[in-house]
Design brief:
By secondary structure, the chain is mostly helical. It has a domain at 1-124. Helices cover 81% and strands 0% of the residues. Helix 11 runs antiparallel to helix 12 (304-324). The protein is globular and about 55 Å long. The two termini are 39 Å apart.
Length: 367
Amino acid sequence: MATRHRRAGRVTDHLLAIAAAGGAVGALLVAVEAGLDRLGIGLAPANSGGVPHGAVMVGGFVGTLVALERARASDQPLASLVPFASAAGAAFLILGWPAAGQLLQVLAAAGLALLMWSFWRLQPQLPLALVAAGAIVWAGGTVVWVASGSPVRAVPWWMVFLVFTILGERLELTRFARRPTAPAIAAALVLVGGLVTSLINWRGGAHVVGVGMTLAGTWLLWADTARATVRRGGLATYAGAALITAYAWLAVAGVIVMLRGLLNPWYDATLHAFFIGFVIGSIFAHGPIILPALTGRAVRFTPMFLLALVLLHASVGLRVAASLASEQNWRQQAAHAHVLAFVAYVAAMALGLLLERRRSTAGTPVG
């Protein structure tokens, strides 16, 4: 009986994970479409204000991916409820039920923090604590959104959530490089100080968050193992290059926020340097590594990955320049290029899976 219950639990957890992954993809598609609508080039530009674009991208897509990765590595029963809640929250936000969506996002963030705590109990380490802190900040940002009625007020919190998450994950690897972590800890403390300040003075807090982002980006550029892996060839070179350029965008976004805050015309430039250049750039780097861990299927390197990477960062550069120059036409062109980069990346992943499968099949003895 116990064995049957465990088997049923594993099946349920697997189904929840599949649903969460599908929800993450759906959230990305809707968020991209909402962004295009706001520029007047989407399928439904008249409905450009209907979907909370940033919240769906941060919680529904990135938050779900982070929670899914951690849930699949956990032995906790029904751990995949965490990413499922995040994806379901995004669905409610898209459908126009913000209260339900916000509640589920807070619960998903709390669940991610608990997952990280379960890992930390087994192996108390700074990187795990940092990712857990990021999850708490994610929840805090959603609460700030509810209390203020404006998702813009939550932007610094969501930025810090993602910086903590990526910084924590990279610290898990860079500890082997024996780089001093004091600057990373200092950056994290500055970021927390900025969030606390933002509760009293939002503009002043944003400037402090910018200082922390700049420190984090600079430290990652100096300390991360990507500087070594970029010389190894194949997927390692691709991942290293993707991470280095992502960290550069984090530093750029940090400098802008530090000097100019989160005000127009800098606001749009900052958001896209951070969320597309840094966050999506980091996802581009980790995708060929995370997918095999989640599915058991390896990905082979193909030059299509480099094409996607060049398209992504060129489009971010164009978007930042166009936003600062208030050139709406070039902002629209940059948005089209974002989409092309996403399509090229999906094609690269699919081709990499196909090539690796063919190589494995060719190497399998018959009979």
